[in-house]
Amino acid sequence: MSLDYTTEQQVAVAAVRRACHLTSSVFNKLVKNETLVKGDKSPVTVGDFAAQAVISTILHNAFPQDLIVGEEDASDLRAESGKEMKDRIVALANEALTEELALGDNTNWGIGPGQEKTDAEILDAIDRGNHEGGSTGRMWTIDPIDGTKGFLRGEQYAVCLSLIVDAQVQVGVIGCPNLPIDPAHPENGTGCIFVAVRGKGAQQLTISGANPTPLSIPPTTPESLNFLESVEAAHSSHSFNDRVSSLLNITRPHTRMDSQAKYCALARGEGGAYLRMPTGVGYKEKIWDHAPGQILVEEAGGIVTDSRGEPLNFGLGRTLGENYGVIAAGKDVHPRVLAAVKQALNETKAKA
Ligand SMILES: Nc1ncnc2c1ncn2[C@@H]1O[C@H](COP(=O)(O)O)[C@@H](O)[C@H]1OP(=O)(O)O
Ligand SMILES: [Mg+2]
Ligand SMILES: [Mg+2]
Ligand SMILES: [Mg+2]
Questions:
Q1: pLDDT in tens, 236-267
Q2: Ligand 1 mutation pick, 36, 38, 146, 320, max ligand atoms within 8 A of CB
Q3: 305 in ligand 1 pocket by Cβ < 6 Å?
Q4: Closest ligand to the CA of 292
Q5: What class of enzyme is it (predicted)?
Q6: Cβ distance 269 to 243 under 8 Å?
Q7: Which of 36, 40, 42, 294 to mutate for ligand 1's pocket (most ligand atoms within 8 Å of CB)?
Q8: Spelled out in words, what is the top-level CATH class assigned to the domain 6-214?
Q9: In which order are the strands placed within the sheet that holds 67-70?
């Protein structure tokens, strides 16, 4: 543990890097019976479970006292019917954990050749993500594959990790294996990791965790402003975004992208604002879906609030209980978007 979070950043980047390697290699090999549908009807793949096992194992070895709030749990894999999937997940997780050491890796984190884990250790690592959250102490959030639907389509997804201390996000790391390294030059290939530490700025790294490039959100002109939004219409209201963008006289079409890759794109100046309004089905946003994105955008000089202008509250448990919607944007744009969102909300209320 270090007060300036240097070790935490190193561990988090190492964990996300290994998990990204796992998810991108599993995508090409995924077969039909390697995806389950969860109770909330969302998909989960062997990649989600194995990536959570890898990240949780590394965190537990590096910081044994820290609590973890992870999206997945291993109950389906502990059942007899989950045996085949469990065997595959254990193999994938061990493959990733035992890969050769690379830049900044440390064998004390439970990684490197010869550090195979047993089935029970892998399942326990997944279940260590069962912390209920709260407003005090240190806890990590893991979303092993954010945007699983994008992952399954071969589009954007993100491996997301954050450290929250006393309800404030202090470290955020987001790995985006399918995101162009340089949006101006898509021919240069894909795969990047984004990292932010509170008070120390935001950076883009290569997918192997090298070459840090500082990020800051550029000022937006009326012509360059547009919204980043979900691909899935069920996850956020597309029609609300259309109304807000017409109130702001935005002419550029929205940029649709799955996962927290939207926060990453915003942090490097692609799209002026990320707007995520509920679709009205009572879904509560999860802390692991916003904590790393929030610190990344804030450290790149932007502002992240809910639709009422309130800060996101990461201290209320596994969900952002009291927040309604999310607006993330550069400092110059955020007040204008917030005003337009309030106006659109008032119009909706007046109609109801
Ligand atoms: N009904 C829902 N409303 C809002 N977000 C949802 C809903 N169902 C799942 N999600 C989560 O929304 C996020 C994806 O958002 P987007 O559509 O913007 O990419 C993911 O975290 C996804 O979970 P998951 O991590 O399982 O993919
Ligand atoms: Mg999911
Ligand atoms: Mg998610
Ligand atoms: Mg997920």
A1: 999 999 999 999 999 999 999 999 999 999 99
A2: 146
A3: no
A4: 3
A5: hydrolase
A6: no
A7: 42
A8: alpha beta
A9: 67-70, 138-146, 158-165, 168-180, 190-197, 201-206, 213-215
> Which residue is listed with tokens 């955008």?
297
Amino acid at 106: N
Where in the chain do CATH 3.30.540.10 domains reside? 6-214
Distance CA 173, CA 42 (A): 24
265 neighbors 158 (Cβ within 8 angstroms): no
Digit-coded pLDDT (tens) for 99-157: 999 988 999 999 999 999 999 999 999 999 999 999 999 999 999 999 999 999 999 99
Name the band, by pLDDT with cuts 50, 70 and 90, for residue 58.
Answer: very high
pLDDT of residue 2: 54
Q: What percent of the chain has pLDDT over 90?
A: 91
Q: Which two structure tokens, joined as six digits, stand for 79? A: 């059942």
| Start-end of CATH 3.40.190.80 domains in the chain | 227-351
* Residues with C-beta atoms within 5 A of ion ligand 3: 143, 146, 289
